[in-house]
Amino acid sequence: MIGFYTVMEAVIAFFLVAGGTFALIGSLGLARLQDFYMRLHGPSKTTTLGVGCSLIGSMIYFSLTNHTLSLQELLITIFLFVTAPVSAHMLAKCALHQKLPHHDRTQGHPEEFDEELEDPDTGTPSSTPAP
Amino acid sequence: MIRSRSWLPIPLLSVLLLIVWLLLQQSVAFGQWLLGGFLAIVIPIVIHPFWEPQPYLKRPFLLLRYYLRVLVDIVIANLQVSRIIVDPRRRPNPAFVVYPLELKEYFTITILASTITLTPGTVSAHLRLDGKSLLIHTLDVDDPDALIKEIHERYERPLKEIFEC
Amino acid sequence: MLDTALWISLILFVAAILLNVYRLAVGPSLPDRILALDTMYVNSIGLIVLFCIWLNSKTYFEAALLIAMLGFISTVAVSKYLLRGDIIE
């Protein structure tokens, strides 16, 4: 039985450290990359997975210490994974609306930068749930 | 599948609400079932008038497979993005890509856009006014056409099979 | 082993939040700052979870859930405000 608990401890430790590392890398991307559109990638993917890893680690921990299945963390994880793309999409729309400059190496030039958008939102099904 | 009735307008939402309530309370006592069931019946009735009808789920098992695939892709995507962020010598090739949509329902487009944001190297940025194309920003891409093809094969076709055909 | 892992993870999360504060202070544009705030919310959820393991109690999970919801809603509301100049039309 001791072997089992040691292995589980290692698994929890792995998830916690992996979570912290991913969160740090996401924030590093936020601090280091050159333009806004590139910065968006770090937090929306990496930080979400980092916190998800920590939550899964804590789920295993509390399931083992309390001898009952602890599913509350799963709820938070799912919520984070559902909402992260939506807020990333809203922020990207925002940046396009404000015509933030993009890096010189960026290929492709969307027409959103040229034309004056009269009403960027009406009729578009954004990722937010319909009102 | 449970049919909707007048006192149970959106059955799947009711089931989801009950499950979430029980998970939040961390107990399966009789009182929690009662209160959760009450909320699961009353909330859908209240919000039914402004609830958009969702497309009918044709093949639930394919949806499960889709979820598993997306889960694996999220991990791969994170390793890729981490490598790009951490390696200081690497100069990424970002690009804006216009992705032509075949899906028509807003709900499935939302799922596709969220999937694109969470999976390798891409953030969906803007849905065009006509709702027929998606503007995607990619962090590191060499060949935009190959990317469009990959997204189509990997995500859009399964979604089309699950919801629309 | 768990204590060491907890310490390492705490240090990493705090460093992440410091980087977010840097971007929040420097960020050349408004969306940059909103993005930094949003990331800070997510990172603080991670901190709360680690704190829960530290104390061996689940009392603070409700707080984590509330921060997740409020962070998401405030991010969307501020983005909406930047897009339209109005939150509820």
Number of strands of chain B: 3
Strand content of chain B: 5-15%
Kindly report the greatest chain-chain contact and the residue count on each side. Answer: A-C, 54 and 50 residues
Main beta sheet of chain A, described? Answer: none
User: Averaging pLDDT over every residue of chain B, what do you get?
Assistant: 78
Uncertain segments of chain A are 117-131
Give the end-to-end Cα distance of chain B, rounded to a whole number of Å. 18 Å
Draw up the topology in text.
The complex is a heterotrimer of chains A (131), B (165) and C (89).
Chain A: H1 2-32, H2 36-39, H3 41-66, H4 72-98
Helix pairs in contact in A: 1-3, 3-4
Chain B: H1 11-25, H2 30-47, H3 60-86, E1 95-100, H4 106-118, E2 122-127, E3 133-138, H5 144-163
Antiparallel strand pairs in B: 1-3, 2-3
Chain C: H1 2-26, H2 30-55, H3 61-84
Helix pairs in contact in C: 1-2, 2-3
Short recap of the structure:
By secondary structure, chain A is mainly alpha-helical.
Description of the molecule:
The complex is a heterotrimer of chains A (131), B (165) and C (89). With 131 residues, chain A is mainly α. Chain A has one domain. Chain A contains 4 helices and no strands. In chain A, helix 1 packs antiparallel against helix 3 (41-66) and helix 3 (41-66) runs antiparallel to helix 4. The relative contact order of chain A is 0.12. Chain B has helices at 11-25, 30-47, 60-86, 106-118, 144-163; strands at residues 95-100, 122-127, 133-138. Chain B has 5 helices and 3 strands, in the order H-H-H-E-H-E-E-H. Chain B has a 3-stranded antiparallel β-sheet with strand order 1-3-2. With 89 residues, chain C is mainly α. Helices cover 84% and strands 0% of the residues of chain C. Chain C starts with a helix and ends in a 5-residue tail after the last helix. The model of chain C has no long low-confidence stretch (mean pLDDT 87). At the A-B interface, helix 1, helix 3 and helix 4 of A face helix 1, helix 3, strand 1, helix 4 and strand 2 of B.
Tag the structure with descriptive keywords.
heterotrimer, A: 4 helices, disordered C terminus, C: 89 residues, mainly alpha, Helix Hairpins, 0% strand, flat, transmembrane helix (chain C), transmembrane (chain C), cell membrane (chain C)
